[in-house]
Every structure is written in C-alpha cells, then in structure tokens.
Design brief:
Length: 129
C-alpha cells in the first residue's frame, strides 16, 4: 500500500470539501483556495483523495465533475456511493442525498455493483428565494 502524504494543499482541499454542504467543482475549489496552489496540483490532490477513499466524484448533468466527502465505509480499494445526487437547475449546486435509496430491478443475469443517480430540479434554498 502506498504511503499517505499530507501536504498543506491536500489538508486545505479536504477541509473545504468536508465542510461544504454541496459538492464542489475544481473551479469552486480553485476560487476558494486563492493562490495556495495551482490547478494541476488541485487535480492531483483530488485524484489522491479519491483514491484514498476520502472523497467521491459526481459527474453533473452538464458534464462538470464535482467532489463530495465520503461518508461511511469507503476505502482506497472501493467506494460505496449508492445514493442520489440532486442537481439544482437554478444555482447549479450538487447535493448528496444519503437517505434516499432508489429501488432497482434489473433483468436476469445482470448484477449491479454500484450506481449513480442524478435528479435535477430546484433545491430548497432556491425554491424559498
């Protein structure tokens, strides 16, 4: 197993993602970090954090990749993210919704190992505005 390296950039990126209520895109992270590190370093750190089981990636309906904290039993070997992601059409936020588990019925001989659901609509913050 590879040694886990903790750099200042990695710590700050993980803190940003862990403290966010919504998934963050690369550009969101870069804006929040300011001049702490360049975009390539951010990509490398995000990949490392995902490989370590600390964060997971969500591909939004518009193709933008977002990152959110892993909750529970994720490891460097396997991620467990069988939950719904909600994409707000107004503010473009992406939120993990852990307590909603869709029921999936597959044809015979198909075995589901993981899935990724994205529901589009209006989030509570935007619907109340």
């Amino acid at each position: 197993m590879k040694q886990v390296r903790n750099t200042h950039a990695k710590t700050e990126i993980l803190n940003l993602i862990n403290s966010s209520e919504v998934a963050l895109s690369h550009s969101d992270i870069q804006k929040k970090l300011g001049d702490l590190c360049n975009r390539v370093t951010i990509y490398r750190v995000l990949e490392r954090l995902e490989n370590e089981g600390a964060i997971h990636r969500i591909v939004n309906v518009d193709g933008v990749v977002n990152f959110a904290k892993c909750i529970g039993k994720c490891t460097h070997e396997q991620h467990f993210h069988n939950h719904v992601h909600f994409n707000c059409k107004k503010c473009n936020s992406v939120t993990c919704i852990e307590n909603v588990i869709p029921e999936i019925s597959l044809p015979e001989n198909f075995i589901a190992e993981e899935y990724n659901f994205i529901i589009s609509g209006i989030c509570p913050k935007c619907s109340n505005a």
